[in-house]
């Protein structure tokens, strides 16, 4: 099976074949660190995490780069207001960002370039664009000449001829005067006396434009042409369109082969955004008692990555139940490895069901990373597995195969084994109660055994008596 993935550039779901056999370069637009990331931002990073995990599960060696934008207009404005230097201001937000990713189980990228560490490469890129006539100087700034790049607009499939402003609102209105045409965008912004962030360059004192930052860092770390570029849908235009224009004008090569743009997280019908003040952070949800793994589950499985997802806290209740069901099934199968009788693999219906479920799971992800369909196949396995185990029709081999299937799911989902580990341990007091209850049952003192069962339930441990002994799980 090939892995088919929607490519924004072609507008089609198409095979993702690496430029170099066996390995793949992946650039993911990272955070602008002037605030804490909200769970909308995190949905995008989780979709990218899923994509990378799936590529790796298919045997590709992925090199992932995620930039940290630590200089831009908003950062400068906020740091100036707070009387802080750039680094002082951005460092805590950067740190919190990494904590959030870690809590959510996002695999770390291989490189996290900071824009302020790449000013030299950015200046070189601007110089190349000036030398080749793709850029011009005006009033101390340097602008990209869009009319020099006929492919402009190909990615976003927009008719950009009548466009006056950038979709992200990051173009200053006072730039219009200085530009040859309004569509041109800034590569290097002229600095003013006393600016918080400015660097010396051949074209004057100033600082890089946001789009330029990503082009310079991506090409420095992944080469002039690489496989995969990712960012939320709002990055398509103008950010990624501008990255393509700058990079391809400078190198004459195709910048990126495949473009991946996960859709937004909404709240109360609108896009969750820092500027709207309608955002929810991971820390807020954790403070309200949610597990980060439940948040991970919801954001990964709540909708296909190309569909919008409407966030409601009630959805986390459902998500938590799903995670618990997966975890309980994992534990039941683990217990089955020791408690059940060995079976012949070919005769164990659970082993059959597990292999079927694995194939269906992979097929759903190979079809444009369809996680909602993929996870549905895992729940089919869970239902069938529990039925077979209840009926005593599955044995050790079936449990082994089911665990293999769950482990395979977890290389992408990244939470079943973790949740099972969190809930696996009984405290000493709970272990004592369980042992006392076993003894009471052996003595046929059922009143006492029921009392102890209720006591365990009060401390969150549900006890179940099965044909093969006593089982427990957390509720
Ligand atoms: P920013 O820090 O604003 O540059 O955004 C970081 C990433 O989050 C970018 O890839 C954005 O496209 C993405 N993003 C912003 N808002 C949302 C949202 N509501 N839902 C999903 N992704 C978002
Ligand atoms: Zn970017």
What's the short story on this structure?
The chain has 475 residues and is α/β, with parallel strands linked by helices. 47% of the residues lie in helices and 14% in strands.
Structural class: alpha/beta
Q: Which percent range describes the beta-strand content?
A: 5-15%
Overall helicity: 40-55%
Small molecules (ligands, ions, cofactors) in the structure: adenosine monophosphate, zinc ion
CATH class of the largest domain: Alpha Beta
N-C termini distance: 40 Å
Choose one word for the global shape. Answer: elongated
Q: What number of structural domains do the residues give? A: 3
CATH topology of the largest domain: Rossmann fold
Number of helices: 15
What does this 3D model show about the protein?
The protein is 47% helix and 14% strand. By secondary structure, it is α/β, with parallel strands linked by helices. Helix 4 (119-131) packs across helix 5 (210-222), helix 5 packs across helix 6 (236-251) and helix 14 (428-442) packs antiparallel against helix 15 (446-458). It has 15 helices and 15 strands. It has helices at residues 39-57, 73-81, 86-103, 119-131, 210-222, 236-251, 282-287, 292-301, 313-339, 349-366, 371-390, 396-413, 416-424, 428-442, 446-458; strands at residues 4-7, 12-15, 23-28, 61-66, 135-138, 141-144, 185-190, 206-208, 226-230, 256-260, 265-267, 270-271, 309-311, 461-466, 469-474. The protein starts with a strand and ends with a strand. It has three domains: 4-262, HUPs (Rossmann fold, 3-Layer(aba) Sandwich), CATH 3.40.50.620; 314-421, Four Helix Bundle (Hemerythrin (Met), subunit A) (Up-down Bundle), CATH 1.20.120; 428-474. A hairpin with a 2-residue loop joins strand 5 and strand 6. A four-stranded parallel β-sheet has the order 4-3-9-10, sandwiched between helices. Adenosine monophosphate binds next to helix 1. Adenosine monophosphate binds at residues 29, 31-32, 40-41, 43-44, 231-232, 234-235, 264-265, 271-273.
